[in-house]
Amino acid sequence: MNKTVAIPKGLAEVGKKYLKDNGINIVELASFSDDEILKKAKDVDGIILMTDPFNNAIVQHLPNLKIVARHGVGYDNVDYSFLETKGIWVTITPNANADTVAEVTIAEIFDMSKNITAIAEKMRLGDFNYKNNHLGFDLAGKTLGVAGYGRIGKKVAQKADALDMKVIIYDPFVTQTTVGTLVSKDELLSDADIITLHMAVTDDTNNFIDSVALKSMKTSSYLVNLGRGALVDQEALINSLKNHEISGAALDVFDQEPLPLTNDLYTLDNVLLTPHIASNTVNAMNRMALDSAKEVVKVLSNENPTWPVNRIN
């Protein structure tokens, strides 16, 4: 196969090997900025894209492009509808990281509930008494509100149920569940002790948690977001945390990534910050690399992909 695919430098070796074994040439890019693509990859037939934004305007300079394969499950960094009009597939890797993201979600809930990171940091500074005034709380008996009941949301709900948490679920597209109870958005906000977000970003879910939603939550409640930054009005959340309208938050995604060091979130002691690590395991990275590479090979072999988010006639 005489085809060329642009890949991120961080792509796991299993993905690179699959492409090479199928006769595809690869071009490794340090970033997917317009300048980098035009300089090194303007003749590519496919792209494997991580979290970099993909600019619509660049498409007119990529005459051979047939597929943008997302290395992950979210696709808010690429305009799949626009690319559909250009005959370009957009795909995702939905089965590659659901377990990992669910595990990291539970890990951050554990961390937040027990103040583990904060206490460990204070210990390194010689403050052995910080723990005495920063007691955690048990998860058993608490209510976890899961917003978005797709692959990840289901796994989070199952794990929380095993921890003896009460699980409530908001998802307008779901009519039944084997774990927990389906509720309205208003009930989710008012009843949950912890709310965790696992929705795709759409017009309906953009700023799903805004100033109104935050005021509807318990003052003792916590927010967890390992989904997408756009699900939360970040400035409204900062104000809510500053004013203790909610007790705390755990955030892995932000409006701008990396999160600028000047951001007010760094000044708050009631927020756990991690740099988009929800899929940061060897296992998940290997699966996402391989699955995205398989989608590229399928499309460049004139087959339909397995996990498209648009439709090419």
UniProtKB/TrEMBL annotation:
Enzyme Commission code(s) on record: 1.1.1.95
Assigned keywords, A-Z: NAD, Oxidoreductase
Segments forming domain S-adenosyl-L-homocysteine hydrolase NAD binding: 132-286
Any one GO molecular function term: phosphoglycerate dehydrogenase activity
InterPro entries: Ado_hCys_hydrolase_NAD-bd, D-2-hydroxyacid_DH, D-isomer_2_OHA_DH_cat_dom, D-isomer_DH_CS, D-isomer_DH_NAD-bd, NAD(P)-bd_dom_sf
A Pfam family: 2-Hacid_dh
Record SMART domains: AdoHcyase_NAD
Record-linked PROSITE patterns: D_2_HYDROXYACID_DH_3 (PS00671)
UniProt family annotation: Belongs to the D-isomer specific 2-hydroxyacid dehydrogenase family.
Protein name (database record): D-3-phosphoglycerate dehydrogenase
Organism ancestry: Bacteria, Bacillati, Bacillota, Bacilli, Lactobacillales
